[in-house]
Specification:
The complex is a heterodimer of chains A (248) and B (178). Chain A is mainly alpha-helical and 248 residues long. Chain A has eleven helices and five strands. In chain A, helix 6 links the parallel strand 1 and strand 2. Chain B is mainly α. At the A-B interface, helix 3 of A face helix 2 of B.
């Protein structure tokens, strides 16, 4: 974590050096925007591994940075370095908060979602997922209402015994024991192995709230449903990270 | 301990401004104070009025030397002087019998009122103080002191600052008017 923090800090400083050639207003706004995206990468990207990563998103502007920036600006700036730093830090926090408040799931979700039917057979479902390079998909009933979600984890679970979460664990299990019975799965249906009930959210849920749900429930994707529970989209952790990059 | 530690400061001193800026500050204030002194001698003295007073020198530091400063903006320059002049004259009239009370109340109340009206302008403190301790001539002016020299001289300084500072590429004045 320490190293990643350092990289962030270096990038931030590099950006500052780039922007101090612009006038002070531009300088402030650009740096802020950049920091917002960097902060988000840091937040969403690393938080899964280390909750203290949030601290990395904090400003690490050195007095030297501010001093140099002030030197680039002609005219007497009636502000102390400490005050500037304080304003910058607080403004950055405001920007982050605004950003987190504003982005909604409807803006970042994928609309073309591969969904499986609850009565699909497991081999059909697995084939669909494999073909599309997905590791999971929402499961819907005949009325298009979301009734569950199925992922690698559920397949692993069905193949071996409980507790298998990675491919290596599965291989190890299959190589070492007799509990690995892949062929038996052919007869099964998606609804037999899917996780249900499933955590769904509405399109107006903010990305920030969903990120919290991801963290708390330790899940990677959430179907977005309309008022009637019908599938309208899907947001993955990747979508949240991506959304922080493409916004200005 | 925290109290003593705060006295150590610890912050870094900001950078010195560039040489061109120093020259522009010098030239602007030269023109500004020069013009006010000229008007004072050529016109105002003829009418037994004052235009040139100490606080104008202090304001020149801000509007020519720290153009970007919030303290140097028009609202502060004119508003701060006028608010302080009113308080200063009032303090002199009401509390003039006791110089210690009158001068301290004049300055402190000016600062409070400048804060309240978002017109904080350091030279205002001098404007308020001079209304109390400036001598008989100032005292005799009464509330005219608010107009001459206070309001008029700060307005003249404002006009010169706007005309002068914007001739320079690196300067923009004011940042905001109100």
């Amino acid at each position: 974590m320490g190293e990643k923090c350092l990289i962030t800090k270096i990038r931030i400083r590099f950006n500052l050096i780039l922007t101090i050639y612009v006038n002070i207003e531009l300088y402030l706004s650009q740096a802020l925007i950049y920091k917002v995206s960097m902060g988000f990468l840091e937040y969403y990207g690393e938080a899964a591994m280390d909750k203290t990563a949030d601290a990395c998103a904090q400003i690490d502007l050195s007095d030297e940075d501010i001093f140099r920036a002030m030197s680039e600006i002609p005219g007497h700036l009636d502000i102390s370095l400490g005050d500037f730093k304080e304003i910058y830090t607080k403004a950055y926090e405001q920007a982050i908060m605004r950003f987190r408040r504003e982005v909604k799931c409807s803006e970042i979700m994928s609309r073309e979602v591969l969904s499986l039917s609850e009565n699909d057979t497991l081999d059909h479902g697995a084939l669909l997922l494999a073909k599309n390079h997905y590791s999971g998909a929402p499961v819907v009933d005949s009325d298009k209402k979301v009734v569950g979600i199925v992922s690698q984890k559920d397949f692993f679970h069905a193949v071996g015994v409980g507790g298998i979460e990675t491919v290596m664990e599965l291989i190890a299990e299959c190589l070492s024991g007799t509990r690995c019975v892949v062929s038996a799965l052919r007869k099964g249906l998606i609804k037999d192995i899917m996780s249900s009930p499933v955590i769904t959210v509405g399109p107006d849920t903010t990305a920030n709230d969903l990120a919290k749900i991801f963290m708390e429930k330790q899940i990677n994707r959430a179907p977005i449903v309309d008022k009637d529970g019908r599938l309208v989209g899907l947001v993955t952790r990747t979508d949240i990270v991506k959304s922080t990059l493409i916004r200005p | 301990m925290k109290y003593l530690q705060k006295m150590r400061g610890g912050g870094q001193s900001p950078p010195r401004v560039g040489k061109p800026e120093i020259f522009w500050s010098w030239l602007g204030s030269l023109i500004g104070i020069g013009f006010i002194t000229y008007l004072d001698a050529a016109i105002f003295q003829g009418y037994e009025l004052i235009l040139l007073m100490g606080p104008a020198g202090a304001s020149a530091v801000l509007v020519f030397g720290a153009t970007r400063s919030p303290l140097a903006q028009p609202r502060n320059l004119v508003g701060g002087h006028v608010v302080s002049a009113i308080i200063g004259v009032l303090a002199g009239k009401l509390l003039g019998a006791n110089l210690i009370i009158a001068s301290s109340i004049a300055v402190s109340t000016s600062i409070a009122l400048m804060h309240l009206t978002k017109t904080l302008h350091p030279p205002g403190g001098a404007t308020a103080l001079i209304a109390v301790i400036g001598g008989e001539k100032i005292k005799a002016m009464g509330f005219l002191y608010v107009i001459f020299p206070t309001a008029i001289s700060s307005l003249i300084l404002l006009v010169i600052a706007v005309l002068f500072n914007n001739l320079i590429n690196s300067r923009k004045y004011p940042d905001h008017w109100i």
